[in-house]
Amino acid sequence: MTKLMGLGSGNNKLVTNYKELYLSASSNTGNLLFNYALEQLIELSGTDVRWSTPAEKINQMGESLLIPMANNIGRHMDLEKSGPKIKDVEVPVVVMGLGAQFPLDADFEQAFNLIPDSSKTWLETLCSKSNQANVSVRGKLTHRVFEKLGLGHKAVPLGCPSHFLSNNKNLGQLLQEKSKSLLQNGIENKIGITAGNPAIANLVKLEQFLISQINNFGGMYIVQHPKDLICLAENWLADLTEDEINMVQERFFPNASSSQMHQWFRSHAHTYVSIPQWFRDISKTDFVTGTRIHGCQIALQAGVPAVCLHIDSRTKELCETMQIPTIPARDFQKAPSMDQLLELVATWDWEQYDANRMDLAKKTRQFVEDNGLSPSSHFQSLVS
Questions:
Q1: Distances in Å between the alpha carbon of 255 and those of 84, 201, 208, 258, 366?
Q2: Residues of the chain with CATH 3.40.50
Q3: Predicted TM-score of the model (pTM)
Q4: Side by side, which strands form the sheet with 93-98?
Q5: Cα Dmax for the chain
Q6: Dist. CA 218–CA 122, nearest whole Å
Q7: pLDDT along the chain (384 residues), means of 10
Q8: Which top CATH class is 170-348?
């Protein structure tokens, strides 16, 4: 058996302030989704091991480690310092979902050179923990990083494990039917918007447009990150400074008073620590869009058409690997239109989406079995 070295699902944890949420779900609740996905796809003996768990304790357990990871390769993170502590781990280690985060259109060689040397050493250590290809990566770009390190044979591009939460083999067919109906009939219920980041100043107009669509159609503003939006969504105002609150108001709600903005968050914003509840709530919407890939992914898995507005290499790479509807956020911002998004999902090649999804599912099962892990009955039902 194997232990999950991650966050766990975040379920059954009561949170009353930002610090408690951070400890149970990290700074981005989207991370809960792929943690939860691996709990559903792989037979595990426990989820109680964390990135900081001492190697001595892990070695005493004597079970292999499965580590969910995200956009952890890039200049923004020193894996030796902040990543999972695996240097002295003696049991087999498998990582799934690892990705590189570079600016869009960045020169690969320059971006690679900005990755800390200590992170590159950590990746080499990771690959030495198994005789098999023991790293599943988000796509071709991240695989290129491993090739540059001479480790291309130890990594397999498979997208994100959350791609297989639904065991519907014809998920794309369902999404196609709903997408065509949306184009013909319009949004009849409500929409979901995956909230962005007020710190990204050059996408402020985009976020203002997305917020206006909730005002037009009704719906949910799903907040995953950062701290200021989470605290506003949960009304944890004591955890924010006045300057932090003012920045959100100035950038996202320039025509609203402070009290109007707070009331809007109370009426529309949601932050989830329960993936099943997130799944159920998002399934009641007609359409989802925004800059968060996992907010869009859970919608698709729930059978709701979605478009990810990608902002960097990490979101673009995942969308390309899993063939999720996507357009560049910067391009969309120039002339934002809900009709454009509905047209995109209605004309998307959902048949190819299904074929690609099943191909990735089979390759993922092979990767799992090659590393001595046991696919769950849920996962087997998808690929059988």
A1: 44, 17, 10, 10, 53
A2: 170-348
A3: 0.97
A4: 46-49, 2-5, 64-68, 93-98, 135-137, 155-157
A5: 60
A6: 46
A7: 85 85 91 95 94 96 97 97 97 98 94 98 97 97 98 98 97 98 95 98 98 97 98 98 98 97 98 95 98 98 98 95 98 97 98 98 98 98 94
A8: alpha beta
